[in-house]
């Protein structure tokens, strides 16, 4: 049986492809043999510092070769890595360290053991596939950070022998995501567990010119983008993607017009819409597209990737008929071990699989419907259903309607208190056109297509949307952004 332990798979790759370039950053390179040796040496240092197996070790190093060495070393030492943004204010960093229960911290190539008291934790007896590989903090929809404990099996299942992408050792991945964002799991281990090359994006902030130069000069073939960056590049800087063979996007709804713009310039490229929460190790479903693929009015999230099961259930966890909307539950090798030190949140989100009681399903909170061909179509969040003027409205549905309007580059719809105790729909729209005329254009189009209670009371038009560090639209910053 193939190994489902990250560093065991990596070591086998290093032995067979030792002279190939594993990772590159700013002209510095490490071969697989060198990366294996350096991470071995660092893992010995971890053990010499009496760090217990099963302990959590924080990584404050930004995207770099040192960070990759640290991740591998931590795993080889039988521990789990916890990426933390080192640019946080000191008080926030201290809180993040406490939440992560870190026994030590890696900064660059140096490790510092933390001496504060911690509650005892059971140490694993082996480096099995159920062992925690990393803890990734995600706020989800509540705003309260939760540490998702991801096992080795989830990562290996994500990138090895899977059905949504073919990764060759000739491929080059770009590590563009922050290490604190779970897309980096696909980027890092997609390369290193398949003998491919990982190129580290050289700048802390996104720049389409730097992206284009990096793709071209380093011959990047596989790139992952958030939906926000995907839409922005497709509409305003599509030429920056020259050279790619496979482009993946996700994190939000992918819009058909952006897909068509990509195929118009790159008819031989493969596009993949990747859907999945951190709690199911980055991807749950993927929808693979080529220029000749049939496409409808929306881009599906597709089918479950290898090693993943999905269920579309109603309010009482009963299966719904094909075409009906239900909540998506997902199971299989990608399901996380739960939330760190949060038993109540874990019990609410991770439920027993009725078909396999010893296994767990993750309750995504996402509403989907199964299409006639078996692919899943994303409908919205279960918490996107709001009461407006006594009517039940899906803000996701209104967003999707706005996206179909000519001239719209992006849309976010929220229900906000109007000051009188009632809620009103507010639409934030990204468009390069004149804001005043665009507002009227959108209003007329929505009034012709939707019942009055679904038409937003207020429409704000902006030239660009603020993006957060992960490249997603920063919904909280929208209200404070200047209108143009």
From TrEMBL:
Q: Say which domain of life the source belongs to.
A: Bacteria
Print the organism lineage: Bacteria, Pseudomonadati, Myxococcota, Myxococcia, Myxococcales
Boundaries of each AMP-binding enzyme C-terminal domain copy?
397-472
Q: Which Pfam families match?
A: AMP-binding, AMP-binding_C
Q: Which residues form the AMP-dependent synthetase/ligase domain?
A: 11-340
Region of interest (Disordered), ranges: 109-131
**What Gene3D superfamilies does the record point to?**
3.30.300.30, 3.40.50.980, Luciferase, Domain 3
State what protein this is by name.
Amino acid adenylation domain-containing protein
